[in-house]
Structure formats: C-alpha cells, structure tokens
Write a structure and sequence with these properties.
3 helices, 72% helix, mainly alpha
Length: 124
C-alpha cells in the first residue's frame, strides 16, 4: 500500500511539475518579448514591435503596444517633415532665434529611430 501511495505522489508531482513548466513558458515568453520591445522603445527605436508566438497569452497587450508605437512613429515622422519644411523656409527668411530653436527640435527628434529614412538635413 505504501508503495502505491509513493507512486501516486511521484506521478502527481511529475504532472504538477510539467504543468508548472508549461504555464511558466506560456507567460514568461510573452513577458520577456514585451519587456524587450519596451526597452527598445525607451531607447528611441520606434520601429520595435512585440512579436509573440501563435497561442501565447497577452496578445491584446502586445497589439496595443505595437499600435501605440506605430502611432508615436507616425507623429515623429510628421514632426520631422514639418521641421524640414520650417528649416527650408528659414533659409529664405533667416532668423537666428528661430534657427536655434529649430536646431534644438532637430536634435531632439534625431534621438528617435523611425522606419522612414526620408528625413534629411536641409542643404545650406
């Protein structure tokens, strides 16, 4: 009887261990992927995406993060385009104070990496 009881306890422990490992992998993979993408976004890489495997948990959270980063990227790209237009008009009507402010804005926007490589500094 004691032998059967020990066997059942070992089987139950094995099943619990396999279940714990499976559950941990279902959660830790997505958490790690989200953490890695958020670190990249914090470093200014706006093209970073959360890429989860099929069937992983937290897919809605990953999609929300990807949507948010895409929207921020679009805003930054628009700001870069507007800055370029302002810098080009600045060459026609020079204003030292405005030039200094535009240079600061350009420096701040250069921190962000976006998918668009169309942004170029104006030719002097």
């Amino acid at each position: 009887m004691a032998g059967w009881l020990l066997t059942l306890v070992l089987i139950q422990t094995a099943i619990t261990l396999v279940g714990a490992i499976w559950l941990t992998s279902k959660l830790s993979g997505p958490v790690y992927a989200i953490h890695r993408a958020l670190e990249q976004l914090a470093e200014g890489n706006l093209s970073a995406e959360v890429d989860l495997r099929e069937g992983d948990d937290m897919r809605e959270l990953a999609e929300s993060i990807n949507d948010c980063s895409a929207r921020i990227q679009i805003m930054v790209m628009g700001l870069k385009e507007n800055l370029l237009a302002l810098q080009q008009s600045q060459h026609r009507f020079p204003d030292p104070e405005l030039s200094a402010r535009l240079a600061v804005i350009q420096q701040n926007l250069e921190w962000f990496d976006t998918i668009s490589a169309d942004y170029e500094e104006p030719v002097s």
